[in-house]
Design goal:
By secondary structure, the chain is mostly helical. It is 82% helix and 0% strand. The protein contains seven helices and no strands. It is a multi-pass membrane protein.
C-alpha cells in the first residue's frame, strides 16, 4: 500500500482520486486540442517546431490516459502495484519520446533549420506554455498528497510541454536579434530529450523491481 493510505481518511482519498481524474480528463482535452492545432500548423506551414510540439502534446495525452487508468478503480486508490505498473508504462513512453525528440533535434541542427514562428504558432505556444504549466502544478500537488509517482511523472511531462512551448518563442526571439544563434531551438530540444530519457531510465530502474515485489501481495484488477 502507498503511504497515503496511512495519512488520508477514506473519504479524503476518494475526494483526491476524483480530483486526479478531473485533472487528467482536462489535461487530455486541452493537450489533444493543442496537438491538433500544432499538427495543422506543421502541415500547412511545414513547421518542424510545430510538429515537435504536437508530438510532445500527444505524449502528454498518453501519460494522462495512463493516470486515468491508474485511478479508474476506486478500491485501488492506495494500490502500490497498480501505481508501479503505471510508472513502468510511463517510463517506457518517456524513453521512446526522448529518442524521437533527440533524433528530430539533431536532424534540425544538421540541416540548419532556422526558427520561424507565425501568429498561429505563437498563439498555440503561449497557450501551451501557460496551460501546461498550470496542469503541471496541479498534478504535482495531487501527486504529493496521494504519494503518487505516476501523477508526479505526468506533471513532469506537462511541465516539459510548457517548456517546449515557451522555448519555441524564445528561440525565435533570440534568432531575430542574433541570427548566429540559430541552433538554440535544436539545442534545447536535445537537452529536453536527454532529460526525459534520464527520467525514464530512473523511473524504470526504480519501478520494475517494485512491480515484481508487489505482484505477490496485491490482487490486481
Amino acid at each position: 500500500m502507498l503511504e497515503s493510505s496511512t495519512r488520508l481518511k477514506p473519504h479524503e482519498a476518494q475526494n483526491y482520486r476524483k480530483k486526479a481524474l478531473w485533472v487528467s480528463w482536462f489535461s487530455i482535452i486541452v493537450t489533444l486540442a493543442l496537438a491538433v492545432a500544432a499538427f495543422t500548423v506543421s502541415v500547412m506551414r511545414y513547421s518542424a517546431s510545430a510538429f515537435g510540439f504536437a508530438f510532445d502534446a500527444i505524449l502528454d495525452v498518453l501519460s494522462s490516459a495512463i493516470v486515468l487508468w491508474r485511478y479508474s478503480n476506486a478500491a485501488a486508490v492506495h494500490s502500490a502495484h497498480r501505481e508501479y505498473i503505471a510508472c513502468v508504462i510511463l517510463g517506457v513512453i518517456f524513453l521512446l519520446s526522448s529518442i524521437c525528440i533527440v533524433v528530430k533535434a539533431i536532424h534540425d541542427l544538421s540541416t540548419r533549420l532556422l526558427p520561424e514562428v507565425d501568429d498561429f504558432l505563437f498563439s498555440v505556444s503561449i497557450l501551451s506554455g501557460i496551460l501546461c504549466s498550470i496542469l503541471a502544478v496541479l498534478k504535482f500537488m495531487l501527486g504529493k498528497v496521494l504519494t503518487s509517482r505516476a501523477l508526479i511523472t505526468d506533471g513532469f511531462n506537462s511541465l516539459v510541454g510548457g517548456v517546449m512551448g515557451f522555448s519555441i518563442l524564445l528561440s525565435a526571439e533570440v534568432f531575430k536579434h542574433d541570427s548566429a544563434v540559430w541552433y538554440l531551438d535544436g539545442s534545447i530540444g536535445v537537452l529536453i530529450g536527454l532529460t526525459i530519457f534520464a527520467y525514464g531510465v530512473k523511473l524504470l530502474i526504480d519501478m520494475v523491481p517494485r512491480v515484481r515485489q508487489t505482484r505477490h501481495y496485491e490482487m490486481f484488477e
